[in-house]
Amino acid sequence: MVDVSQYVLPPETKVAFLDCETAFKGLTDKEKLYAHYISQASWYGGLICLFQTSPESPGIYLLFHKLFGSQSVEELQSAAEAQGVTKDEFHAFLIYAAGILSNSGNYKSFGDSKIIPNLPKEKFEKILMSSKAAKEIQGVWQEISERVYSLVDRQRELGLGKKGTTTYYSSNCDLVDAKVAQEFMSAKDISPYNTRLFKTQENGKVVYEVRLASSSSADGDLPGVGAVLGSHDFTPKETGTPCVFKVTRGDYSDLMALVVENLTKAEKYAANEMEKKMLNEYAKSFTTGSIPQHKEGSRYWIKNKGPIVETYIGFIESYRDPFGLRGEFEGFVAVVNKEMSAKFAELVNQAERLLPLLPWPAAFEKDKFLRPDFTSLDVLTFAGSGIPAGINIPNYDDIRQDEGFKNVSLGNVLIAGYKEDKISFLDPKDAELFIKLKIQSFEVQVGLHELLGHGSGKLFIKNADGSYNFDQESVVNPETKEKITDCYNENETWDSKFSVISSSYEECRAECVGIYLCLSTDALRIFGYTDDSADDIIYVNWLSMARSGLLALEFYSPETGAWRQAHMQARFCILRVMLEAGQGLVTITKTTGDDGKEDILLKLDRSKIIGVGKPAIGNFLRKLQVYKSLGDVDSGKKMYDYYSDVHDREEPHFLSLRSTVLDRKQPRRMFAQHNTVLEGDKVGLKNYEATASGLIQSWMERFPAGADLDQKLTNLWQKEKPFFTD
Fold it and tell me: What is the pTM of this model?
């Protein structure tokens, strides 16, 4: 029996407004125009996420866009209530609509489980049919209604093959197909970031189409890659069965064209030549489908130090690809918070003193620390399926290793999105301190996680000429004490080697760096914490990590044995390491809550963080780094799978605790965001209420009702339906 409550957004789900008004008002007219056009490019590109989530997500979006474009929420509510819909049912309808918009589809951006409406299907239909758009949306509803409410096994969460739903791959693809495709793409030096995979049969032979995202569908060479477009006969080592690969471009072409159009307009208002070149390369990449051109734009981006308006755009994070390689479209525009950025700048200045504190040999650290830009930003626009608290980009290994990267902490996201109304699983004293210091400790964790977590560590590579980027004679594996014989080949990347576990494994490494280095008095002093205040920050940071590991059980699916969220899997692994350390560092006890229901109490002994916790995390972190550096997938996966295992074979019986965690879970906040509006030759800013209605209104005003965009989305949706039949 399916527990439907795990797939609905509860009525108490809150909306937070991402306020950037003060920062925006501080911009010049030119900077505002720059921010406006990149925001437009980001929002249009963000619609691509609908097509990267589920077969029905574009249809659900079109349904709501037509529905709320025909009349106000208040008018629709009056019409629905006249047809017997209750206020609670209409509220549930609005929460669902807001959830679809804020997650860019009907699967949670944080957790990958399906979202279904929290009201009966007949009442949902009554609301639709009582609207002014009833006739216009009837056809769309008939196409999607079954899948909107369906909780059959394969549709409950994102996944590949029979394990779940995805539109990065046609519905007849499985893990073997993903491996075969990666083998082909590695051989042709094609990056998977901006691709999808579609499988068909022709003349009894399997045909794979690798479809690149671009506004152009024309034939020709792929800049930076060469003559790869077209048909290729291929026999993969994975199966030994001959097949055909067709490399095409033009995926999401109409939306990509709108992205290019607005980036081109933004170029006129760029602050310097670096920004102009950056935007020009992005536009070329989105036109041709060439990742090398996007990498070139990213090189200009990391060189553009300290811009007032910060932005990044493209196919970035691979969390939601079940195989862990394909990037989701994302674009953001933000304004620098100078006060907090000064602390991060000092962290960068001290980085070369802090890096040697990490628990791996010096040879496993980058040859030279590439001093990045690290700023605290107030988000003006964040288009994609979800909004993180911090980012370390670009994700291209060769650039990060040899040229540099940038870190950003999203200050207004931290403030608006990480408040908790009820603190579960802690005693009253801990809960009080947790509420007081959660945001402050999280700022420290984000800073260390992004800069010294994602920004640290070396990959050992064998170059095409047979040389190595490390000294083979002197460098040994600290786990085996033997010389290093295997490592990455030149065309291999971290993602391509570790694929399915790469995202979560890397987040685990960065989270460990954060809690390990927060024990440094030098690190905490940068953020203004000394003496007792520093001890409290350390305690709350470690307590938060342990508690997050417990909360992570919500994001584990016992039916498939799969984790649905990379960061939460990482935090569960860290909790397992803390428990394994023993000596009472962390204890988890089953209790009864004030409401008479089963509860859990998690305790952290602050006196044992240094003596017990630090060496345990240090040993785990060293192994994470060594296996990553060497590209040792077998050892890395074996260890990570061990700590990721949720079972009842021993205390504290995590599999059984999961039901209590689910009973006491709290819904994540959704974000309403500003819109920028052209007012003659200036740009205005629109604010919205922090409600489901306000969030819906912001989306309607972002994309005013009109046949042109809706038709482009409809055409793309109809074009790919034959590939998603299950």
Answer: 0.93
